[in-house]
Amino acid sequence: MSTAALALARAFLFVPADRPERHARALATGAGAVIVDLEDAVAPERKAAAREGLAASFAALPAAGRQRLLVRINAAGTPWHEDDCVAVAGLVLQGLIAGVVLPKAERAGDLRLLAEAIGPRGVLVPLVESAAGLAAVDELAAAPQVLRLAFGNLDFQADVGLACDADEAELVPVRLALLLASRRTGLPAPIDGVTADWRDAQRLAADTARARRGGFGAKLCIHPDQVAPVQAALGPSDGELAWARRVIEAVRSAGGGVASLDGRMVDAPVVRLAERLQALAAEQDRHPTTKETSK
């Protein structure tokens, strides 16, 4: 899996760093990316041991699976951050992970230091989870090696004192800010936050539909059962794929210039949309969702 494929991934599944038996099962769900979590999922007294065990756990995984692995380290300013940076730098160098998720991202300088630590082979995903992160969102998006922005919706609410209903209407301007920052810096569509109750399929469907309407291309998942619905909801429908094929064929028949389809002009932006829909379908074909879970 290439960086380009990670840029199209739709489901980013969290799995605890200190549960190595779950790492392979998380990859087997077909999630576009698996985030091995050293932050919230690991108690303070277990962080060092969890960090030290990552290399052995990842080395046992298939090489193709390792290309879908990211590690969420602890935030800058925490007691574990510097050791985490050293560890993930080694993991990237060995080809054991694709990159790093930085929580509580608020300063582009922190991302630059992390990029220097992991080297040019690794990608970065900053999590915007605070008012300070929102204020710096353009600088975060423009930092070296940033793959996509991600939204920490629950932490953001806690940081600014919001008490959102399930629809999180109060967060519409924040999500729009991430979308616009991504567009201004040429990043792929951002990654939306979690649906906290993994048992609530109706809420997950509503949240994922909102993400797609709002221009987000992916969603953070906290349970394997969320992967398949997210992949499906954020991927192209059969009707969209049929339209995309017709667009590409119309352009081909016109010799590569401006074409017409159903009485409407097909120009470069329409062709780009059709090509993106086909690329999303191809990404799903490479990593079909299985029924295996990391429970």
Walk me through the structure.
This protein is α/β, with parallel strands linked by helices and 295 residues long. The chain has 14 helices and 10 strands. The strands form 2 sheets. The chain has an 8-stranded parallel β-sheet with strand order 6-5-4-3-2-1-8-7. Strand 1 (11-16), helix 2 (23-28) and strand 2 (33-37) form a beta-alpha-beta unit. Helix 11 (201-213) packs parallel to helix 12.
Brief sketch in words of this structure:
The protein has 295 residues and is of the alpha/beta class.
Comma- or semicolon-separated keywords:
single chain, about 300 residues, alpha/beta, eight-stranded parallel sheet, two-stranded antiparallel sheet, 14 helices, globular, disordered C terminus
SSE layout:
Elements lengths: L2 H6 L2 E6 L6 H6 L4 E5 L9 H13 L3 H4 L2 E4 L8 H13 L5 E4 L5 H11 L4 E6 L2 H5 L1 H5 L8 E2 L1 H8 L11 H13 L6 E2 L8 H13 L4 E4 L5 H8 L3 H16 L5 E3 L2 E3 L1 H19 L9
Parallel strand pairs: 1-2, 1-8, 2-3, 3-4, 4-5, 5-6, 7-8
Antiparallel strand pairs: 9-10
Helix pairs in contact: 11-12, 13-14
Radius of gyration: 19 Å
Low-confidence stretches: 290-295
Largest sheet: 8 strands, parallel
The computed structural class is alpha/beta
The count of β-strands is: 10
Strand content: 5-15%
Can you give the helix content as a percent range? Answer: 40-55%
Strands of the widest sheet, in order across it, are 6-5-4-3-2-1-8-7
Quick check: average pLDDT?
92
Order of helices and strands: HEHEHHEHEHEHHEHHEHEHHEEH
Give the helix tally.
14
